[in-house]
Every structure is written in structure tokens, then in C-alpha cells.
Structure to design on (126 residues):
């Protein structure tokens, strides 16, 4: 994996960790208004989504060497789906939207990295 992939993966991992911790700390605070009670901790494991995530993770790790340059963007996309899984599994209410925003950010960065890698491959072949 090249430096651009590693930097993006580490940066997004640190950002995701801090947003998860800050969100869960905020949810642990006492409610100030009835609207605050809409978003709360609630454990509900989506079984099909969990099975799909575990199998997709296994496939990406198994094909890591074959994917070469595009393994980084796929790991970022997979991380976005795991981020969504965390919010879908442990929270309920409007805070679940934060998981969707994290997935959207990972899709955008994955798209940018793929374009970057396609241009570098094209530049090398010339």
C-alpha cells in the first residue's frame, strides 16, 4: 500500500475513533430536554448486515495482495461501512445519521483516491 492510502486510512481511523468517543460521551450525559432523549444508547444487532460486514471484511483481507493499489480505497470504504454499523448497532434516533455521514465521507475519499490512482497508473504507462 502506498503512502497516500496509508495516510488516508490512518487519518480517517483517528477521526472516526474521536467522533465515536465524543458521541458516546455526549449520549451518556443526562438529558436537558425531551428532544435530547430521542438519541440514546440501544443495542440492536442487525444480523444480516453484520454477516455481510464480516464476510466483506474477510474477502477484502484475503484479496489484499491481488487488489494492490485499490486495496486502500476498498479498506476506506469498508471502514465507512463499519462506522455505520457501529452507529446502527449501539444507538437509536437522530445520532444514527452520523454513521451515514461517516459512510458518505468514506465514499467521497475512496472515489478521490481511486481517481488519483487511475491518473498515476495512466502517467506511468506513458
Amino acid at each position: 500500500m502506498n503512502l497516500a492510502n496509508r495516510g488516508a486510512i490512518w487519518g480517517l481511523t483517528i477521526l472516526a475513533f474521536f467522533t465515536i468517543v465524543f458521541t458516546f460521551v455526549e449520549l451518556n450525559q443526562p438529558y436537558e430536554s425531551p428532544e435530547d432523549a430521542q438519541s440514546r444508547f440501544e443495542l440492536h444487532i442487525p444480523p444480516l448486515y453484520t454477516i455481510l460486514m464480516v464476510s466483506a471484511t474477510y474477502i477484502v483481507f484475503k484479496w489484499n495482495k491481488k487488489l494492490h493499489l485499490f486495496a486502500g480505497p476498498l479498506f476506506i470504504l469498508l471502514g465507512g461501512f463499519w462506522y455505520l454499523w457501529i452507529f446502527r448497532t449501539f444507538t437509536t434516533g437522530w445520532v444514527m445519521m452520523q454513521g451515514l455521514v461517516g459512510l458518505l465521507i468514506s465514499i467521497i475519499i475512496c472515489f478521490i483516491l481511486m481517481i488519483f490512482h487511475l491518473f498515476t497508473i495512466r502517467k506511468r504507462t506513458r
Q: What stands out?
A: Residues 53 and 66 are 20 Å apart (CA to CA). The beta strands are 40-41, 91-92. The chain has a mean pLDDT of 86. The radius of gyration is 17 Å.
